[in-house]
Write a structure and sequence with these properties.
Blueprint lengths: L1 H16 L9 E2 L3 E3 L8 E4 L2 E5 L5 E6 L2 E7 H5 L9 E6 L3 E6 L3 E6 L5 E6 L1
Parallel strand pairs: 1-3
Antiparallel strand pairs: 2-7, 3-4, 4-5, 5-6, 7-8, 8-9, 9-10
């Protein structure tokens, strides 16, 4: 019985230690964030979920109550952009999707509930 209880405690402690520690001052209330011009912000909050661009500027994560909900690497899934740096430049929230601009003119769509990422193309 003690070993089961101890195992549960260890699992709970390790799970909580993986929660992202980000600066809440970097979270915007806006529905669109241009990281090129608004460098002090890195995320958007909507319905208690924080959508956050990680330090590598390629990964978009969702956190609910400070714990990871999903994580997607836009560049790894969509490929490097033809023009510009392989980094997220703009995130824009819609009802159930997030639109992402990366590089100069490359576009992706992310499902807000699952994190499933779809490459939309480049212009």
């Amino acid at each position: 019985m003690k070993s089961i209880f101890l195992s549960i405690i260890i699992i709970m402690l390790t799970h909580s230690s993986f929660a992202q520690k980000f600066d809440k001052r970097q979270i915007s209330q806006k529905s669109e964030l241009n990281l090129s011009f608004e460098s002090k912000f890195r995320g958007i909050i909507k319905n208690d979920v924080i959508y956050y661009v990680e330090k590598d500027m390629q990964t978009l994560s969702a956190y609910y109550n400070g714990k990871p909900k999903w994580k997607t690497n836009i560049i790894a899934i969509c490929g490097k952009p033809y023009i510009g740096k392989p980094a997220i430049r703009v995130i824009k929230l819609k009802t159930d999707k997030m639109f992402v601009v990366f590089g100069k003119h490359s576009f992706a769509e992310v499902d807000l509930s699952t994190g499933k990422t779809k490459y939309l193309g480049s212009d």
